[in-house]
Amino acid sequence: MLFLDIDPLQIRRIMTLTMTRMILLFYKETGNVNEGMVGEARRYLIPMREMVEYVVGWMNENREET
């Protein structure tokens, strides 16, 4: 078993970059991201079921065998 000594801030950065990458790939490949406003803030609305299915498919295709 492998243990990594990474501080929580570093883990948040890695997770944020990974999620941003997945969202961008999802948008690029499906176009299924809607832009909207919440108050005066611009937000991107993502259908979660489709996003989860996309990410699971992506992980299955890109997973390295161990």
Describe what this molecule looks like in 3D.
- By secondary structure, the protein is an alpha+beta fold.
- It has a domain at 19-62.
- 58% of the residues lie in helices and 15% in strands.
- The protein contains 2 helices and 2 strands; from the N terminus they run H-E-E-H.
- It has helices at residues 8-30, 48-62, and strands at 34-38, 41-45.
- It has a two-stranded antiparallel ribbon with strand order 1-2.
- Strand 1 (34-38) and strand 2 (41-45) form a beta hairpin.
- The longest helix is centred in the N-terminal third of the chain and has 23 residues, at 8-30.
- It is flat, with a radius of gyration of 15 Å.
- The model has no long low-confidence stretch (mean pLDDT 82).
Topology diagram in text:
Blueprint: H1 8-30, E1 34-38, E2 41-45, H2 48-62
In short:
This protein is α+β, with helices and mostly antiparallel strands.
Main features:
66 residues; alpha+beta; two-stranded antiparallel sheet; flat
Structural class: alpha+beta
* Rg measurement, Å: 15 Å
Order of helices and strands: HEEH
Based on Cα principal axes, name the global outline: flat
Spatial order of the strands forming the largest sheet: 1-2
| Spans where pLDDT lies below 50 across 5 or more residues | none
Helix fraction, binned, reads 55-70%
Instruction: Count every beta strand, where a strand is a DSSP E run of 2 or more residues.
Output: 2
Q: Mind describing the biggest β-sheet?
A: 2 strands, antiparallel
Distance between the termini: 12 Å
